[in-house]
Design brief:
single chain, 141 residues
């Protein structure tokens, strides 16, 4: 599990470097991505489905991104786009395409359904967290 979290850290660091995230924010973005992946692994280990694990992970990533953005005076997207990278269901899309090429239709539908559910869970988690922060800002004003 430690190797996977370190791998997520390095992957986000590399992605954020390519996306030209400011150097002073690279470590923060990478820590957010690694933390999100750790949450995903822990939830998976304790019996949650991949969809629920993705939702929990994306919620933590989104929350940490909003907190970091305010603390470091940077846009939320700087942290969110890089941080969410480890949770994005790229392998699910690969499995869907592979099943499609091998003409195993039952597997195609299963993989596609799970991939879309994971992507939807990530989007909903980001939306909910963003809405909460917008409501908090509205109340302050």
């Amino acid at each position: 599990m430690i190797i996977q979290v370190l791998g997520a850290f390095v992957a986000v660091l590399g992605f954020s470097t390519v996306m030209e995230v400011p150097k002073k924010l690279l470590i923060h973005t990478s820590v957010i991505g690694a933390t999100g992946w750790l949450v995903y692994l822990l939830m998976s280990r304790y019996g949650y489905t991949p969809v629920m694990s993705s939702f929990g992970s994306a919620s933590i990533i989104s929350l940490l991104s909003h907190i970091s953005a305010r603390a470091l005076k940077a846009p939320v997207t700087v942290f969110l786009i890089g941080g969410i990278l480890p949770v994005v269901p790229g392998a699910g899309m690969y499995r869907t395409a592979y099943s499609l090429m091998m003409e195993t239709s039952a597997q195609v539908y299963k993989n596609l359904q799970e991939t879309l559910l994971i992507a939807g869970a990530i989007a909903v988690a980001i939306f909910i967290t963003d809405s909460i922060f917008r409501l908090m800002n509205t109340h302050r004003k």
